[in-house]
Amino acid sequence: MPINVPDIRNIFDKYNALCFEGKLPVPRIKIGHSKNYLGQLRFKFSKDRDGNITYSDYSLVFSQLYEIDEEKLVDVVIHEMIHYYILLNHIKDTSAHGVVFRKIMNAINTRFNRHIAISDRSRMPVDGENQQTKVFLVCVASLKSGDTAVAVCARTRAFEIKEELPRRYEILKLNWYITTDPYFNRFKRCITAKLYYANKEELTKHLASATEMKWMTNVSGGRGI
Question: Do 3 and 73 touch, CB atoms closer than 8 A?
């Protein structure tokens, strides 16, 4: 079935009332073209000098590149709503789909006879899906908080982003990679210094075949990678 914003909004409103006491503010809802996920929660975050993290600019994005029936769409929307609830309430979980996520997911599945899952292995691409290979410039930030975050950068802005990130975030280390792994389609391409939280184990797996980049200064004084 084709997906659209009004249908997703109706699902969000219904299960916000049923599962979350209507307490989730309505985020932006978007339709995308990712080959790597059916649904995704996106957000921005910043950290002050005391280490307090502020989240903002929430959006739920759903891909129209896969055939999906109504029941599956409902499960995908609720899946992303669980992520949204955990993040909005600053609840610490053991991983992206950790103990807290699974407890909420299992409770909703049991109470409302849903079939929400951690991941989906049954995605069928819509005919004519674009198979063009993309190259990603990925900055991986190890934060002083112990978290791992990612910026998928526009190459023309990479140096400015590299210089600005340590001024905006408390960073222990930055590593830069070139990869064609389509996993990185899920991250918005940055033209400014913005980081997005990522699961460290999942990230390591998808960077296994990436090329690590080194920074250098050329003889004319310009900087490149």
Answer: yes
